[in-house]
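PROTEIN DATA CARD
Card holder: ABC transporter domain-containing protein
Chain length: 99
Origin: Homalodisca liturata
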Amino acid sequence: KNVGYCPQENAFTNDMTVHETLTFIAKLRGIPRGEVSDEVERWMKVLGIEQHSRKLTGALSGGTKRKLSTSMSLIGDPVVVFLDEPTTGVDPVSKRNLW
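Structure generated from the sequence above:
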């Protein structure tokens, strides 16, 4: 709960949607059931991936996969977040918004 980690290599399965992946992570992090949906929507919006919510993660572009990995590390507002090249392959505007 206190530490988030975004590895250099994407660490998610390719057969779940973006929304399913973030929901799974939120539940693993212990987000209360009634808050999971809001938390998932929040981070999809912050990282600009809400339009991809129903897409399978395997069908995403490299930059969008990095945004998903970053959002996975931020769900639950951990105290410390380790980011290993979270913006590799991400468009310049999204890079600026993230930082």
